[in-house]
Specification:
By secondary structure, this protein is of the alpha/beta class. The chain has 7 domains: 138 residues, P-loop containing nucleotide triphosphate hydrolases (Rossmann fold, 3-Layer(aba) Sandwich), CATH 3.40.50; 143 residues, P-loop containing nucleotide triphosphate hydrolases (Rossmann fold), CATH 3.40.50; 63 residues; 77 residues, no CATH class; 64 residues, no CATH class; 162 residues, no CATH class; 114 residues, no CATH class. 40% of the residues lie in helices and 17% in strands. It has 28 helices and 34 strands. An 8-stranded mixed sheet has the order 4-3-5-2-6-7-1-8, sandwiched between helices. Helix 7 packs across helix 8 and helix 17 crosses helix 18. It is elongated.
Length: 866
């Protein structure tokens, strides 16, 4: 439900250069207190400086997302529209550029301020005449004043860049195009100043100062100059009439053309506008557009975008419901889903958010975190991860972002090395941290951090100004661009959420993780230039992703079989490295994905070191016994005969057939065998192993290390927690063996269970009791009789004739098992149709096991406990 506050409201509407902002500043200074909202941080700063000159620094405050100057006795507040404190008590309130309520991205903010921001004594709405019908219907008792333009604006036709008059501003719609025009102007006229909305105020002011003082005759800018920035410009030339609006590349509306063209002329000095290049080019105006701009006649706006500016924060569901509510006025339209709401919806599905955001205070705090602007424009996924990280800090402990964590991110940006694009990217990132630093409820020491971010932004801004000046004013020996219209590498590059890469709206490939793959249809000279543009621009995006990788916790890195089956390290679903044969079994080579080499040797080295640290931590967590075996194998303090056992066992991955280690074991005396067992190693009848290496995590790592050594794909692992398997297929059986299973016919039993059953057989038979396939311990495992027989033979037992105590077979002796030995067929205890067979004499005692045999090891193992 839209609520209207009633007060004396005046709407001053008209084209550019009508003195609307000047009038509002005069009215502001005529009241005891006041606030004005602007569409740009740069414009708010410009008016702030003007009011400071009138009222003094102690009486004036500047409030933007990433900059807050609030003296204790401030009475006049200059703000961006998003930062306006709507609930404050001010004698005068003004909103500039109210027609931006029709902007799909930010329109709902301007509409909310238009409806709710009111001064105690006077309210003023400034904007284009196109918004007049909507203001009249939405604001009760509004007094609309139309102001004519002070000077004449006329069309001057199309001109080549080399023939533009002095004091001209050339408007382009991407940073690359701005830089291209500025570099060409350097050739024709000695240089140009550069102004873009993404620049910090100090950089922008330094660039404008060069233009205003006549150091350069031309200004190259984005459409940011159309939002009321006061510049001494005589002519505005459009390098293009098409722009990418965040969704598609489209032609400017007539209102947008007029807003920008209107920057030409100042006060009573006439101005002109035109296009860059020849008639009929991409920047050419139609006769209808020229007539409308010169006469300042534009179609009125049909609607403004609206979203509840004061949603309830009782619960997450109520908050989202209010933000998605539809307006009840026909002049308003529900705003498209903004970035803050997109992030909120994603976080609302997070179990941790659901658990913590249970009261109004926490929901409100979550919503404020979602309001963090996406200054870097790297996509919703990247921005949502950043907000989620902040929210975790804000919702736990004392609710503050850790000082060290914040300081580390600032320190990472504290370098002036790099080109213009790199410095611009750092300034965008610094604006994020500056915004956070100016939230006093987010940091324990906000004043300190605000000062640090301010100093950082000034430092980067000075470096960027120097770089811009060096490139576009002083660098006269650089290679010049000859034909911007044919240099496709200067067009904007965009990366969609699904990884699609496009140049000027034309898809040319995909970005999967750090790897860019070219569209198979990308052929021809123009396509090659598009790819060059993509590769140049993608570098900044990839460096941001690399920084995120370096800062990721260990839990974010995963070891898994890659597409080829080789052990692969993944982060956030991105393959970043594979394991290959190294110096030892426990030390494989970590080979980074080739796509990471494009990040440069320094970043490549840092990522390699990060993965090596992660590898060490994971091995200590999952295969610590194997790590200790490998260390013991080269430890001079360990006796050589024991080192030999450790070396063989470590090389086998910590699990080995007994028969393979028997030669080394034969050299150990009783005390040395005790030392081996004391280290946790099980010296079994069939296998030698450490029980800790049979766990699922250890099995995965052992499988990966084995794959890296052999160069063969990782084999399938048995289900976690399984003790008995029925397997088919050579790969599956081999994978089970590496994971710690031994095959007995068609069934595979985990080796620790096999050793347990061998011990149980010995203890049972030693008591003179039968040990049969129907023994509860065998049945509970699910071991079938053929597998049971294989197990007993492998353990060194032999089969004897059955006795009358039951129909099962009995094992009452033991001897060294022979692979070719087959169990005797069972003989029935009795037959209904024939005489009972005569009993055979008792079997002779089994011969003593030969030294070094499998059973000799078992006898030695069990004899120590008997």
């Amino acid at each position: 439900m839209v609520q209207f506050a009633r007060s004396a409201v005046t709407a001053v509407l008209g084209p550019t250069n009508t003195g609307k902002t000047h009038l509002a500043v005069e009215r502001l200074c005529g009241h005891s207190s006041g606030m004005m909202g602007f569409p740009l941080r740069l414009l708010a700063r410009e008016v702030y400086d003007r009011v400071v000159a009138i009222k003094g620094r102690e009486s004036v405050a500047l409030i933007t997302g990433e900059e807050k100057i609030c003296p204790p006795k401030a009475r006049y507040f200059l703000c961006t529209a998003e930062s306006m404190p709507v609930d404050g008590d001010y004698a005068f309130v003004a909103l500039d550029e109210a027609q931006l309520g029709a902007d799909p991205e930010r329109g709902h903010v301007f509409t909310d301020r238009l409806l709710r921001a009111r001064g105690r004594e006077e309210t003023m709405i400034l904007g284009s005449a196109t918004v007049a019908p909507l203001v009249r219907k939405l604001v009760p008792d509004v007094d609309i004043i139309s102001r004519p333009r002070f000077s004449t604006l006329s069309y001057a036709g199309a001109k080549k860049l080399s023939r533009l008059p002095k004091r001209s501003a050339i408007v382009a719609f991407s940073a690359e195009e701005v830089y291209a025009v500025a570099e060409m102007l350097r050739r024709f006229s000695g240089g140009a100043a550069v102004v873009m909305g993404a620049l910090s105020p100090s950089t922008r002011n330094a660039q404008v100062k060069m233009f205003m003082e006549g150091q350069v005759d031309y200004l190259v800018a984005t459409d940011a100059i159309g939002m009321g920035l006061n510049l001494d410009v005589a002519h505005v030339a459009f390098a293009s009439l098409r722009k990418f609006d965040g969704h598609r590349t489209r032609r400017l509306s007539i209102t947008e053309m007029a807003q920008i063209a209107g920057r030409a002329g100042r006060h009573h000095r006439d101005g002109t506008f035109g296009s860059l290049g020849g008639e009929g080019g991409d920047a050419s105006f139609t006769p209808e557009e020229i007539e409308a701009i010169e006469a300042h006649r534009f179609p009125p706006l049909d609607f403004l975008y609206w979203r509840d500016g004061a949603p309830r924060c009782d619960t997450l569901d109520i908050l989202i419901s209010d933000l998605e509510a539809r307006p009840d006025k026909p002049q308003l339209r529900a705003a498209p889903e903004a970035v803050d709401l997109t992030v909120l919806k994603r976080m609302a599905d997070d179990p941790l958010v659901i658990e913590r955001a249970r009261n109004r205070q926490q929901v409100k705090r979550l919503w404020s975190a979602c309001g963090l602007p996406d200054f870097q424009k790297l996509g919703a996924d990247h921005h949502a991860r950043m907000v989620s990280r902040l929210w975790r800090f804000l919702s736990e402990g004392q609710g503050y972002i850790p000082r060290d964590w914040f300081a580390q991110h600032i320190a990472r940006l504290d370098t002036v090395q790099g080109d213009i694009a790199t410095l611009s990217g750092r300034i965008a990132a610094a604006r994020t941290w500056s915004y956070i630093a100016h939230r006093p409820d987010w940091l324990e020491y906000p004043a300190e951090m605000a000062e640090r971010t301010r100093a950082l932004e000034e430092k980067l801004s000075d470096a960027l100004h120097a770089a811009l000046t060096q490139r576009f004013v002083d660098r006269r020996t650089a290679v010049l661009l000859r034909d911007m219209g044919q240099n496709m590498a200067l067009l904007p590059v965009d990366v969609d959420q699904d990884g699609s890469v496009s140049v000027d709206g034309e898809a040319i490939g995909r970005l999967d993780g750090f790897r860019f793959s070219v569209d198979p249809l990308a052929r021809g000279e123009n396509r090659r230039m598009l790819l060059a543009a993509a590769e140049k621009r993608l570098g900044a995006i990839l460096r941001v992703k690399a920084d995120e990788l370096l800062a990721a916790p260990d839990a974010a890195l995963v070891l898994t079989p890659g597409p080829t089956g080789m052990p692969t390290i993944c982060w956030d679903g991105i393959e970043i490295a594979t394991l290959h044969k190294g110096a030892t079994f426990i030390a494989p080579e970590i080979r980074l994905d080739r796509a990471l080499t494009d990040l440069g040797p320094d970043m490549h080295k840092r990522i390699a070191e990060r993965l090596a640290t992660w590898m060490t931590a994971q091995q200590e967590r999952n295969v610590l016994p194997l790590v200790k075996m490998a260390a013991a194998a080269i430890d001079p303090a360990v006796p050589p005969v024991i080192r030999a056992v450790f070396a063989q066992l470590a090389d086998a991955g910590g699990v080995s057939d007994r028969i393979d280690i028997d030669p080394a074991l034969a050299h150990l005396d009783k005390e040395q065998r005790y030392t081996l067992r004391k280290s946790g190693i099980t010296v079994g009848v069939l296998d030698i192993f450490h029980p800790g290496l049979l766990k699922p995590g250890a099995a995965l790592w052992r499988m990966a290390l084995m794959s890296a050594r052999t160069g063969k794909p990782m084999l399938p692992l048995p289900p976690a927690g399984a003790t008995l398997l029925a397997l088919e297929g050579a790969d599956t059986i081999e994978g089970a063996r590496i994971a710690g299973f031994r095959g007995f016919g068609a069934q595979h039993l985990r080796i620790d269970m096999a050793e347990r059953m061998a011990r149980a057989a010995h203890e049972t038979i030693a008591k003179g009791e039968p040990f049969v396939a129907l023994d509860p311990r065998i049945v509970s495992l699910g071991l079938l009789e053929p597998a049971f027989l294989e197990l007993m033979r492998a353990a060194g037992f032999r089969q004897i004739e059955a006795v009358e105590s039951g129909p099962n077979w009995v094992f009452r002796g033991r001897q060294k098992a022979r692979p070719a030995e087959r169990p005797a067929r069972p003989r029935p205890h009795g037959r209904k149709d024939g005489p009972r067979p005569a009993e055979k004499p008792a079997a002779a005692p089994a011969p003593s096991p030969s030294a070094g045999s499998a059973f000799a090891g078992l006898a030695d193992l069990l004899g120590r406990n008997g």
